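#onboarding

Welcome to the new folks! Below is a worked example of what a typical request in this channel looks like: someone posts a single protein sequence, and someone else replies with the predicted structure as tokens. Don't worry about understanding the tokens yet, we'll cover that in week two.

Example request:
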Amino acid sequence: MLKWYNDCFVQNSMKKSFEKIKGEINAGTCKSTVHLIVVSLNKEDVFDILNMKELKYEGKQAEEGYDGNIYVVGIARSRDDAKELAGSIISSYYTQRGTLDVRSFFEDKKNEFN
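Example response:
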């Protein structure tokens, strides 16, 4: 099940259509090419970038404690845009908190995902 961060990071060019696309993704009817930035299933990475049309963790092994949800923190049109947005999320977090422990931040905020 997809769970969306309440303050989801959205590529600027998608902000007007975000709620519509999010609804289509949740309904399984999205025909747009979009990439989701999600909290990684493995403990070694911060984020994974998933092509929404594939929406599966090919080659990824869920670690112990995985609760069956995919936690979406951001969305972008292309893989390159998603990489750039993920970098911005990490950079912003570091600037605000002085640490790179972004993964723990989102794991601690799982109650802020719907």
